[in-house]
Amino acid sequence: MDNLTHTLFGLTLARTALGRAGRGTTAALVVASNAPDVDIVATASGALSYLRWHRGPTHGPIGLIGLGLATASLVWLWYDGSARLKSRRLQARTRSVSEKQEHAPSKHGPPDRDVGSRSQPSFSVLAVVSMIGVLMHVLMDLPTSYGTRPLSPFDWHWYATDWMPVVDIYLLIALAAGLAMGRTSPGVRRHTALIVLILMAANYGMRAVAHHEALALAPRLFGPTLPQRCAPSVPTARIIDRWPRSAPPAWTAPSGHRCLVEIAAIPTFLSPFRWRVLAQMSNAYEIRDMNVLDPRLRDPASDVSWRVRVRYPNLWTPAVERAATTRLGQVFLGFSRFPAARWTVDGNGITTVRWDDLRFTGAALAADQPLRPPSLFTAMVRVDAAGRVIEERLGR
Questions:
Q1: Across the beta sheet with 274-281, what order do the strands follow?
Q2: Is the dihedral of CA 18, 22, 27, 33 positive or negative?
């Protein structure tokens, strides 16, 4: 999810029982809810480095423990420093009063005790709360179509459920409204936070059901042109997707013709009922938009216009396979879930290989349409006639 959502969710958690665990828990939850995205520092080495490390070890077991302890340490040191500063100010104020009233009868009670130690948060409590904040960040990234790598660096595979877009406006509205409405009293804040968490669970549940329906209705959407499954193929009945998988040349059909690798339903930004359905063939992708509430999809007699679809070629030649061995190719193909390969050859025999991750291309491209301008999720490699790589470029 985006960092605004993570921040609002951290503030919401701070209004639950976690926020009553001691002083500093709100700060710890907000910082920890964003801490895994510290991997943005990888952009200092370029976009390719960011693509390699984003949602990697900082989202894995080491990141969970390390970032949790680091967050707890920062918050504890902040409160410790604040407590020491308050203590020094109080002592200075007490000495000043004592000097002025040295010979006068005391009208004051005994000096106030040092409030710094009383306000100091427990490090162990902060550590546990911070690790919960980091864990919730990872768990909120998992249902997105972007995915995450929760086992890295021990396992660099990506995992996703495809339930949520990277930015969910309904989630943002619920979180922001709950924080705005729960300002009157601690009791109201706690009850409002509980209502927001229930609404979040309902949103996730609704999207999970809609995603399951989209996959179940996909064969009807594509019609009789949908080919038989490859050997091996990706199971349709799965909750969590995992990639990267075998390279496209590994997908084969018993008949030797094109075959179906998998069908995926990618969430859209505005509606939880509209999905972008992507059928990966052994040599191309076919893409359709679907509204799971469309009654025609459940009526065998209706025409769902299965003949109207967009095909995006995915052609793997020796030049494409050579480009896949480059550093850029390995990083991009390790990240990309649906890398569609296209290639062109100029008059000098130089082959330009281009991969687009179809999760992020927007409107799909037909085979005869010109290429769209590259984005961050586009990789290009140029190979000469002798098979030598002469250029690698990510995005623009």
A1: 260-267, 274-281, 284-291, 310-313
A2: negative
- Whether omega for the bond prior to residue 232 falls within 30 degrees of 0, making it cis, is yes
- For residue range 308-333, list pLDDT tens digits in order: 668 888 988 888 999 999 999 999 99
Does 166 fall in a domain?
no
Instruction: Tell me: do 141 and 32 sit in the same domain.
Output: yes
Residues 295 and 346 occupy one common structural domain = no
pLDDT in tens, 356-369: 999 987 644 444 44
Q: How many other CB atoms are found less than 10 A from the CB of residue 143?
A: 23
Determine contact, residues 305/323, Cβ cutoff 8 Å.
Answer: no
Low-confidence ranges of the chain (pLDDT < 70): 81-120, 232-233, 236-237, 246-256, 303-309, 362-375, 396
- ∠ CA 261-393-319, rounded to 5°: 55
Strand partners, 266: 276
Q: Is residue 79 part of a domain?
A: yes
Number of domains within the chain: 3
Cβ neighbours of 362 (radius 10 Å): 9
Cα–Cα distance, 341 to 18 (Å, whole number)? 48
- Where in the sequence is the domain holding 362, given as residue range(s)? 318-394
Question: What pTM value is reported for the model?
Answer: 0.85
Residues 131 and 264 in one domain: no
DSSP designation for 291 = E
